[in-house]
């Protein structure tokens, strides 16, 4: 009996070239691959000018289709309009489970909301200063700064490092809020359960923002939590009580 391999969700990746650096292209598609298959890859902008010339070599490398939009009128962004029109056409084709909107422009807030109203998943990609309205309109929002690794010195043999956008302590209230939404008699909760709650609670939560690759590393090094391993190799955590340290708990 032949077992058919389940196909990944089909995603349409739509890039606003005017608000996106070509330096994130490699990391962008690695990140998109975590959510599904980038079946459509389109970028919108006026490629006749010098501003977007740096995208030229990137397009063919990542199989991105450029959609030329001439700036006929100063101050009017034809690229945004073209991206929105194409997104709605692709939505109504019924062929896609999700959309990746790559821009830091709050003008795409309504588009993200509309796509989600129709049942599509929306993954946003933009800079850390992207307006909150757009970030919260997406199911997940990934900061593009987290997609660019620091390049180690030549011949150092070291792996690329993530840049910390915020101190680990900034994650404590977010994690505490997630823990508070999980039922527990003694305050202890499994870390994987916390991770599941975070996905739905905070669209732009990303451990890389705090300089780590895994949630467990953030908890161990961020302070504010007791942690220990339990049966099955799972990690559980609890918030330290205010005004004093908890008894030391060992990671078994």
TrEMBL record:
InterPro entries: LOTUS-like, NYN, OST-HTH/LOTUS_dom. Transmembrane segments: none annotated. One of its GO terms (molecular function) is RNA nuclease activity. Residues 167-241 form the HTH OST-type domain. It comes from the Bacteria. It holds the Pfam family NYN. Gene3D superfamilies: 5'-nuclease (3.40.50.1010), LOTUS domain-like (3.30.420.610). This is OST-HTH/LOTUS domain-containing protein. It comes from Bradyrhizobium erythrophlei.
